[in-house]
Write a structure and sequence with these properties.
Elements lengths: L1 E6 L6 H9 L4 E7 L14 H8 L6 H21 L3 E6 L2 H4 L9 H4 L5 E8 L2 H10 L10 H14 L4 E4 H6 L1 H12 L7 H4 L28 H6 L2 H10 L7
Parallel strand pairs: 1-3, 1-4, 2-3, 4-5
Helix pairs in contact: 7-12
């Protein structure tokens, strides 16, 4: 059975792009999934697993979590295939890479090893995503250090070597072209009307833009010392060179 996945870091436009994928014909998209994520106790009548993991962590060992996860994937895949629909899982990869000690690769992909998987990766200029993350206090685990952030972004990208990578900036400039290419990479039918549909789709992680139109947002004001930090980060320059971003050090 084929599982499709999309991967990105926080504040890189992932929710917007995922909404546009969810608006494609016969797609079911499940948002921000990480098999190693922590449990929560809150009112969610259908969520057995998360509450169990939170309240009985002594029983929720790695094997139990893996069994929980694959049983859910199996159920959703069978349901989608019976209706001729395609399942896309949006990875919640931030805790894999932006924790004090990063994990060894994507937890989601490691738990999908028994499935056929097609994946796409989306990225954003690291300066813009860094500024947005810092504003939301999402990089405390790495002390909001720009060089460490670039190290983690490069590790994330290298862990997905061989998968198609799409720039958020290109998507904002020409969403139809990029979405068509993304659907091709995922072997999905492409629907021209996604631009009329995406804004009505609800997904987790919807903390950014609220506009029903797609455009490239302006850069936030550079934080004090960021240019100096960028100049001292070899991996920042590697990211710029590799993906065609203009260095703020130029």
């Amino acid at each position: 059975m084929l599982v499709r996945t999309i991967h990105h870091q926080a504040a890189t436009g992932g929710t917007l792009i995922s909404k546009c994928l969810a608006a494609q014909p016969d797609v079911c998209l499940i948002s921000e999934i990480n098999p190693l994520g922590g449990g929560t106790v809150r009112f969610a009548p259908m969520n057995l697993v998360s509450q169990f993991v939170k309240q009985y962590s002594d029983l929720a060992d790695a094997q139990l979590r893996a069994d929980f996860f694959t049983s859910q994937v199996d159920l959703l895949l069978r349901t989608c295939e019976a209706s001729d629909r395609s399942l896309i899982i949006r990875d919640h990869s931030h805790p894999d890479y932006m924790r004090a000690r990063p994990r060894h690769g994507s937890a989601l992909l490691s738990h999908l090893g028994d499935y056929d998987v097609k994946s796409v990766v989306t990225i954003r200029d690291p300066v813009d995503s860094y500024l947005s993350c810092v504003r939301r206090s999402w990089l405390k685990a790495i002390d909001s250090d720009f060089a460490r952030y670039c190290d983690r972004i490069l590790k994330f990208i290298n862990d997905f070597e061989g998968h198609s990578v799409f720039r958020y900036e290109d998507f904002c400039v020409d969403p139809t072209r990029v979405m068509r290419d993304m659907c091709s990479s995922l072997e999905l039918d492409f629907g021209e009307d996604f631009l009329e549909k995406f804004s009505s789709i609800e997904l987790t992680g919807d903390s950014g833009r609220t506009s029903p139109t797609i455009s490239l947002p302006p850069r936030r004001e550079l934080a004090d010392g960021l240019i100096e930090a960028a100049a001292q980060s070899p991996n920042y320059q590697i990211l710029c060179d590799r993906f065609g971003y203009d260095s703020i050090c130029a």
